[in-house]
């Protein structure tokens, strides 16, 4: 009793601590997210605005800020450190000449460009026509602006390069920015945040006395187009004071984009004290819209689950259990007589565990599916607990890649163990491991390479540099492949799963059916898709329309419901196939739930046609469809694996209760 009580007590204590942490995180209105640290500024301290890539919902092709004739910073352009996720998303964060002094309201001059040449005019007009947005960052907060079409206030991140008024052929550039910085006066005691120069990085050091300053809790802009006298402006130096202006409504007072025009860039900044505290400053960006729609999605999924659970309940309790109980109560002579009168799933007892066609491919896809599912579960759970802060740009994608790499050991183990179960031996396990390590990453690599050539041709910052290609290949070859081989080796040493019945040498003929079985398999995918499609709309909107997606709590619930529905659909369909004496259930069980990916891809096309109507050009459409294909493939492998493993367990349990020779 003594030796076993300590582990039990320690595991209970760990679970209790974990539960308290979750409840504490859930009960707080706001808390400091890991990876982000508060920075306080003193009065008059210089703070610098950073610029990200220019983005557009019309083309989805990001371009560098300094590809347009904007003012350069005095010390030259310096790129900020970027993580793997930022590079993959096409972010290019640079310094800018926009300088603020804390709590100092001022209106300043930046620069006047040289006369615009034909190429610069064409480029500015093209970016204006394609609705490109300038994205600025201050203290890790993206700039916001507000518009009021039809009296409804809409919040945007970034501001346009320019605009073309309705009924006019002229394009006008945004060359004057009216910034509003919200600050919260802070008084701390006994600690100080010491930064390393990059936002989101720092350490806490204890100090004596009080530490007071200002926290930046909001960053807003009103963009204007103002025509100024270039001769008078050129006499000024950068950061000389200029008169504050109101945004003109008259077009003759706005700055047109024409050849030989010299454009003067100016800005003004106003600091406003705010009651918003630093932990709550992202709330304005993460306001959850459509909460009722999310709840409707969950209720809809629950109805589907209860419906399928009822069917599974009927299968297990009324049909399977009844038949098994009746069979077990008979004596041997009666069982032999009953064997001759068997019907339905009992007739395929000698073929149900026969090796499927392309068994190696099935093992590979199940291994990759486990890897993707594990990555998704861990990522969503961490994001729901607040560990994937939007303040840490690219962290979500970086975390997903790292998780996928290290979960290769699980993929190798599951793929090889399934291979041993099907083949009855370990011969060829290395080939299974290599195929598992290369199958899904190979598909992603081929699609990304094709898309990258398109992006290179467009000179977009979304194109992956060659160095990043080598980095990704190194990570794959040095981490994922060895771990997959290690997992496969462990799988060869694991206990073999024994089939409960023997397989006949001669395959049983499958009766002809009135309709092809693949129709039933394709139709089964509609039920998992029904639990997913509403949340899919919000995810696609966050990816392609530049909105923040941070309702990971809802996403976690929807994902759990999706897992349950996939398992139930696959079990029901497998049982239906066995009842009509179709023993080729392996691939059908996989695609019964995996076919949801087809509907996801079709929905993506529907979203492109009806919700991304502004998307212009074949290049943008090819990029969208390429990324959608990668997403659909990952969903197919994940959902197909969930359905297959549940069906395998169901079939194994079902026939382990049968005593037929």
> Strand pairing plus helix content: what structural class?
alpha+beta
Which strand order do you get reading across the main beta sheet? Answer: 2-1-5-6
Mean pLDDT: 80
Radius of gyration, whole Å? 31 Å
Describe the main β-sheet briefly: 4 strands, antiparallel
**Quick one: overall form?**
elongated
Q: Helicity level, as a percent range?
A: 40-55%
The separation of the N and C termini measures 44 Å
Helix run count = 17
DSSP E strands, number:
16
Proportion of strand residues = 5-15%
Low-pLDDT segments: 1-35, 190-209, 337-341
Description:
With about 650 residues, this protein is an alpha+beta fold. The chain is about 50% helix and about 15% strand. It has 17 helices and 16 strands. The strands form six sheets. It has a four-stranded antiparallel beta sheet with strand order 2-1-5-6, with no helix packed on it. Strands 3-16-12-15 form a four-stranded mixed beta sheet. A hairpin with a 6-residue loop joins strand 7 and strand 8. Helix 7 packs antiparallel against helix 9. It is elongated, with a radius of gyration of 31 Å. It starts with a helix and ends in a 5-residue tail after the last helix. The N terminus is likely disordered.
